[in-house]
Write a structure and sequence with these properties.
Length: 511
């Protein structure tokens, strides 16, 4: 997201004045500088246009997520062709994730300067170019380089979808829309082994990249006409078309290199040791994603060793993961609807306090613990293979529920700049951990046996059950004492917004 948090009032593109009826009593949603009555405000777009922008963001995210896990299906083929170990082959997955880890740091600045749609439309073709290079690589070194840069250039699509959904959908449904945008990446990653298990059985491992390329090209065709959704860029474009200069509030992501580095590099590092809320959420999501991505290595290996599954049979096991992701979207949305209705009578904004966004994480944390012990102690020849496979589906349901709840909570836990820094830390850290664990998971399983390898994660997950509960009870107090809280930052920002409003109004009058 590229938060701004202020309203600005301007004529629409067709010249019709957009005059606000009254200053709202509730703080404007993150990322919006436009009047609620402005016809160009993405939240006022026709429903079909909102859906199209969301579908494009979803398609791009699906394509990149499919590309992340696609190479895991070709590990055996790469080991034979390049004469490398399994750990080295898994680097094809990990290096792709390490490339993506740069996206939360760089994408807010690109989006601020160019808008969202140009970044989408440049990022995906560059991703596709390196996917093609990976498919044609004649050495593992060339493959590794291409995989890293495929992640580096594809990563912005995974970050931008959050901003796109926040631009066009109401903050009253933050958990719901974050569930749907998470669904794109979860299903994209899960579909890769499901589809490619059949492809690689008939063709070489290189077809994992060729199919990923085809999906990226299909997504690009869908998204060629994607509208710009970033309010600041909409205002800038409108001003250029009308021929007058516009003075927007200073971008929360920073203007100078030092400001940009402070917002998405130095402040996140400081938060990692000074902000209890951010520390707890970051650690929990890092565990979550590390275990999530190791399944793409462990599931095929364990099903082959224990049950004699072929490559395409192991791919079918990921149907359980896809079902788990769909179930999480349903349950998280239902929980949000229930909590919003329950709190409607006590909130002026007809929206529950943000602590209630943590409820799916409270439920999901129990499922995570149960699934880890379930899988660890059931993957053995004497127990039917469907038992551990269903357990992975339960893990994915709990993983996505926790992710959706905690990220939705952080969306509005701090003022705009603090939120951006916190989200940057959370995203980068969990991706780094997701890249690391797949490299060592097979050694853990062989050294500790599956039941104890997953019990280690299960015991850590037991401790993590307390995280959403602590945030629900003590979160408001912890955030109030933060140096990034609204109480600390609010007064200066309010004065700046009033000054910018006056400047922009003068610009309109002059024009």
């Amino acid at each position: 997201m590229d938060p701004t948090g202020t309203y600005q009032f301007h004529p629409s593109m067709d010249g019709t004045p957009s005059v606000p009826k009254q200053e709202p009593t509730v703080a404007p949603p993150i990322g919006h500088m436009m009047s609620p009555e402005d016809v160009d405000n993405p939240q006022n777009w026709p429903f079909w246009r909102k859906v199209y922008a969301s579908v494009v963001a979803t398609a791009f995210t699906f394509a990149v997520a499919f590309g992340i896990t696609s190479l895991t299906v070709g590990i055996q083929g790469m080991m034979m062709e390049f004469s490398i170990s399994m750990t080295t082959a898994v680097l094809g997955l990990s290096l792709n994730l390490y490339g993506i880890a740069f996206a939360p740091i760089t994408t807010p600045h690109l989006s601020e300067r160019f808008g969202r749609s140009p970044v989408y439309l440049v990022s995906l073709p560059l991703f596709a170019l390196f996917v093609l290079g990976a498919g044609y690589s004649k050495s593992f070194a060339a493959l590794a380089v291409c995989r890293f840069f495929a992640g580096f250039f594809g990563g912005p699509c995974l970050v931008l979808i959050e901003g796109t959904f926040a631009d066009v959908w109401s903050p009253h449904r933050t958990v719901t829309y974050y569930s749907f945008l998470s669904l794109a990446s979860y299903i994209g990653a899960g579909c890769a082994p499901l589809i490619l298990g059949y492809v690689v059985t008939a063709e070489s491992w290189r077809w994992t990249q060729y199919v990923a390329l085809m999906i990226a090209l299909a997504a690009y065709m869908i998204g060629i006409g994607v509208p710009e959704t970033y309010p600041r860029e909409i205002l800038r474009t409108r001003a250029r078309r009308r021929g007058f200069k516009i003075n927007l509030a200073k971008a929360e992501s920073g203007v100078t290199l030092s400001e940009m580095a402070r917002t998405t590099l130095f402040t996140p590092l400081a938060m990692a040791v000074t902000e209890p809320v951010v520390i707890l959420v970051t650690f929990y999501l890092s565990l979550n994603f590390a275990v999530l991505f190791q399944w793409f290595i462990a599931v095929p290996a364990v099903l082959n060793l224990v049950y004699g599954f072929t490559l395409h049979q192991a791919g079918l096991a990921f149907i359980a993961a896809i079902v788990g992701a769909l179930a999480s979207t349903l349950t998280s949305s239902l929980i949000e609807s229930f909590t919003n209705r329950r709190n409607a009578c006590t909130s002026m904004a007809n929206m529950a306090p943000i602590e209630y966004r943590l409820v799916p994480a409270m439920v999901g944390s129990l499922g995570m613990v149960a699934s880890l012990f379930w899988i660890g102690f059931s993957a053995m020849p004497t127990i039917n293979h469907t038992v551990p496979i269903v357990g992975t589906g339960v893990y994915v349901w709990s993983s996505m529920s926790i992710l959706t709840a905690l990220v939705s909570y952080i969306f509005d836990a701090y003022p705009a700049k603090g939120t951006l820094s916190a989200l940057t830390l959370m995203a980068t850290t969990r991706i780094i951990f997701a890249a690391w664990l797949p490299l060592v998971i097979i050694q853990m399983i062989m050294g500790l046996q599956g039941k104890w390898a997953y019990s280690v994660f299960g015991f850590i997950a037991i401790a993590m059950i307390a995280v959403p509960i602590i945030l629900f009870i003590f979160g408001p107090g912890l955030r109030a004492r933060s140096r990034h809280s609204a109480a600390t930052m609010g007064n200066g920002k309010h004065m700046m917004d009033r000054h910018v409003d006056q400047e922009m109004q003068m610009g309109d009058d002059h024009h």
